[in-house]
Amino acid sequence: MEVGIIGSGIIGLASALALAEAGYSVKVVARELPGDESQNWASPWAGAGILPYPEGKGHDLQINTFKYYWALAHRDPTSGVQVVDVTEYFDDREDDSAIWYKRLVPKYHVLDAKELPEKAKLGVRYQSMTVNPAVFLPWIQSILIDKGVRFYRAEVKSIDEARSTLKTQIIVNASGLGALDIAADKAVVPVRGQTLHVKSNSHEIVMFQGSHYTYQIPRMYSGGVVIGGVSQEGSRDQKADAVTRADIIQRFKLLTRGRSDYSDPQNHIQDIVAFRPARKGGYRLEREGSVIHAYGFNTLGYTYSYGVGLRVKELVDLILGRSKQPTSRL
């Protein structure tokens, strides 16, 4: 049975993988394809840490994704996936009662108060993974092509146009920000992110969440890390802002108590500006007739990706009468 997918971002590619592994014939149509460096899609620019979210719904999606990348990091380092230590700080909670993934991640423990930066109320440390999109996206496309998945470069504006282009009845709408038009979903909104790729030999994710959003994420094989960031809902400004860049550098310096100072311009590799595909009210992952919608994951596309692919496969099975209606696991 043939299935068409709109979008070759991380959600579209993960869906293609899960479907191909289940024996489906898969076609993907997208305006951008792996290897493209356009700012019009988010997947190549993501920091791409596999970081479960304390309040995020869809725990099973995140668990399945974590297991996939964990196995991949140990099986094939050419994929651009690596295991790293993670330190998370919070100033919006006193304890780790809401951190459900403490039973999932290896080496999880709560930090002593003396290890916390200024204003942090909680710190935890564990192991997870990072993904280098510049390596991973072409790698997974190659895997998919070997499994018979076909890719078509085209911009489609509707489900009907996708069906006409791909000649498939079942469509997976993983179009990201394109869902604003393709699904006529007015809840879809771009969230501008600005980060800085800098030279570093660090192999640790550092994340501060709560009153500000500051982080460092290693990028395998690049000789550096990505530091950020900002989340500017609705902004479409493609240019890197010097004031924002300086603020990110200063925030991270304070976060690490001066141990990591990325203010030297000679260490700057690249400014990154991209637009995360968010959705007010949360992501959409559901069947609508013979269409499966999978979009709106904002900053957590990689964290949800393979779990979403498995759920998409379940919904395709349901359309074809190959399984019973899956129960909600949100």
Automatic annotation (TrEMBL):
FAD binds at V156. Belongs to the DAMOX/DASOX family. GO terms for cellular component: cytoplasm. The keyword Transferase does not apply. Residues 3-313 form the FAD dependent oxidoreductase domain. Its cofactor is FAD. The keyword NADP does not apply. D-dopa binds at Y215, R276. GO terms for molecular function: D-amino-acid oxidase activity; FAD binding. Keywords: FAD, Flavoprotein, Oxidoreductase. This is FAD dependent oxidoreductase, putative. GO terms for biological process: D-amino acid catabolic process.
